[in-house]
Amino acid sequence: MSDHDDDDVIIETLALPLDGWHRARGGRMVEFAGYWMPVQYEGIMAEHLWTRESAGLFDVSHMGQLSITSDEAATDVVAALEALMPADIAGLARNRARYSLLLDAGGGILDDLMLTRPALADGESERVYMVVNSATKYDDVAHMIEHLPDAITINLMEDHALLALQGPKAVDALARLVPGVEAMVFMQAGGFAWQGHDLWISRSGYTGEDGFEISVPAEAAEALADALVAQPEVKPIGLGARDSLRLEAGLPLYGHDLTPETTPVMADLGFALFKRRREQGGFPGAERILAERASGPVSKRVGLLVEGRQPVREGASVVDAEGSEVGRVTSGGFAPSVGAPIAMAYVPAAMAVPGTRIQLAQRGKVHAATVTAMPFVPHRYFRGA
Q1: What is the tens place of the pLDDT at every residue in 196-219?
Q2: Whether 305 contacts 370, CB under 8 Å
């Protein structure tokens, strides 16, 4: 890099622990968030439908896994983190996961994340395990270092891979290899062992299906992936189907549906504002966010059913009767399980009512769409027999 000016710095695309594994199985590799990742194997449509019917294995090792602890007994990790996000972490039971949002001072969303309070062994101090988005993980760590007490230590677990096994038959496949996972319910987590390797497994995911996310030491990732795809229910699935699955599930994607310009209320993520935190405040942007919650936001994220067969993509305009832009599509594509194009968009609050017909403008063409409740397909999380 010393041969280039700052403006000419070439950032190397990095390989993750399963890079060779994907290539050996015919994965078509693309650069994504600084890493080589498989976008598809046999095709996005086929991989999408297989995951909805059976089980798909996703490599999500590009995500940031953080272990957050305190070096001083007097510094409370939970209280420190609650100052940066609206989650009720203190009220979270051990080995339970929770969705939350890292917020800036104005209530804008810096990232969305999953956090867990693992059960503690005798003498072990408080620890929070967190998974953040790949494209923002270094900014997230820098933000937390800047705003958390000096006694807080953040370990970016780059020596671990992260696999997601998703689909209605995921539990059958994983339970054969790791007995006991079948007893967990949605958003429950725990430590397990497989062939001498410690695993951290949560019953969660990003597809709307039942499934698991598995944190595994990098040196064991390939062997575990081999063991999983050897199960008759499991096929490897690429990023393309991951995106169409999460879109059908109505789950927002950071950097597209969520940005620092959006707040939790605008993004229709009010469930992430927990009662105790709403009553007590004390999180970034609380004044603005609570005012929006009381009076309604100016604009809101909604789901759209698009007429015809042509998808409307991110960046398309939502236009009023005079053709003026009043909103913006943030995600869009053809939904294999719905059998039609769908999208997410931010629209004026008055247009956010399900059943409202709107117009979208893309490359000189106008498309008709109808605001609809999300998800587009029902979630099938396992909440107990």
Answers
A1: 999 999 999 999 999 999 999 999
A2: yes
pLDDT of residue 2: 39
Strands 357-362 vs 35-40: parallel, antiparallel or unpaired: unpaired
Give the DSSP H or E segment for 173. Answer: helix 170-177
| Token pair belonging to 58 | 């996703």
Residues sharing a CB contact under 8 Å with residue 365, sequence separation 6 or more, in sequence order: none
> By C-alpha distance, which of 265, 331, 346 is closest to 299?
346
Bridge partners for 154 per DSSP: 68
pLDDT, mean of residues 94-122: 97
For residue 36, with 0-12 CB atoms within 10 Å meaning exposed, 13-18 middle and 19 or more buried, which class applies?
Answer: middle
Work out the angle between the directed axes of helices 44-53 and 239-248 (0-180°, nearest 10). 60
* Confidence at 124, pLDDT banded by 50, 70, 90: confident
CA 256 to chain centre: 12
3-state class (DSSP) for residue 166: strand
* CB-count burial class (<10 Å; 0-12, 13-18, 19+) for 230: exposed
CA distances (Å), origin 261, targets 143, 312, 346, 371: 17, 22, 11, 22
Cβ atoms of 52 and 337 closer than 8 Å: yes
Nearest CA among 40, 32, 39, 38 for reference residue 14: 32
Binning pLDDT at 50, 70 and 90, where does residue 72 land? confident
- Residue 178: pLDDT over 90: yes
Position of tokens 């009220």?
91
